[in-house]
Amino acid sequence: MYADARSRITELVAGLSAEELEMRAPATPEWRVRDVVCHLSGNLADILSGNIEGVATDPWTAAQVDARCDTPIDEVLGEWSANGPTIEAMLNDFGPTGIQLVMDTITHEHDIRGAVNQPGARDTEAVDASLQWLVNSLGERLTAGNLPGVRVVSGDQEWVVGPGEPEATVTAPDDFELLRALIGRRSVTQVAGWKWEGEAGPYLGVFAPWGLRNTDLVE
pLDDT, tens digit, for every residue of 45-59? Predict the structure, then answer.
C-alpha cells in the first residue's frame, strides 16, 4: 500500500509546474506542495537514521521540511525513491505503526491532490486501511476522555467505538469524507452537518486527533 501511494504521488508531483509546486496546500496551509513532499521523504530518512525523538510532532516534521527547503524537487523525490523499498520491506513488522505511516502518506497524497485540483485514488486499499486505523483512533480518544461510545456509519460499513453503548450515531457522506474528517481535514461545521442521531456536540472536539478545522474544506 505504501509503495503504491509513493508511486502515485511521485508521478503526480513529477508532472507539476514550478508554480504548482509553490502553491499552498489548503489542507496544510503552512506548507507548499513541495513542502509536503519534503515531509514524506524526510519521514523515511529519519526512520532509517534512527532520528525518531519527537516523532510526528510539529518540530520533527518542520525540521524535515527545513532541511530540504532549497533542494530541487527531483532530488527530494530521488531520496524518497531510494529509501522507499527499504522501509516498505520492513512495514509489515511495524505493527499498527506501519498502518499509521500508510495513513500519513495517504493523507498527504490527498492534501497534494486537493492543492492542485487533481482528485483521484479515493477507493484504494490504503484509503480503507487508513480509515480503519482512524476510526479505531477515535475510539481510543473517546475512552481516554471518558466519553460515551458512538456508532459511525459510512456506506455499507459500520463501527461502534468508545466505551459502553453508543449514545449517538453519525452517518458520513462517504468513506473519503469520513477519512478526511477523522484526520482533521473537515471543519466542525461540516461534520456537525452530517446526519446525527443523538447529540453531535460531545464528539466534535475529539473527532480528529488534532481537532477539526475552523473553516470548511471542500475537495
Answer: 999 999 999 988 999
CA distance 160 to 166: 7
Round to the nearest angstrom and report the end-to-end CA distance of the chain: 22
pLDDT tens by residue, 46-102: 999 999 999 889 999 999 999 999 999 999 999 999 999 999 999 999 999 999 999
Task: Name residues whose C-beta falls within 8 Å of residue 84's C-beta, 6 or more positions apart in sequence.
Answer: 2, 3, 6, 44
CB 118 within 8 Å of CB 12:
yes
Q: How many CB atoms lie under 10 A from the CB of residue 175? A: 18
**One-letter amino acid of 69:** C
For 125-204, the fitting CATH number among 3.30.1330.60, 3.30.1050.10, 3.30.10.20, 3.20.20.70 is 3.30.1050.10
Bridge-based pairing state of the strands 166-171 and 195-197: antiparallel
Nearest to 213 by CA among 193, 183, 176, 169: 183
64: part of which helix (H) or strand (E)? helix 58-67
Q: Are strands 149-154 and 157-161 parallel, antiparallel or unpaired?
A: antiparallel
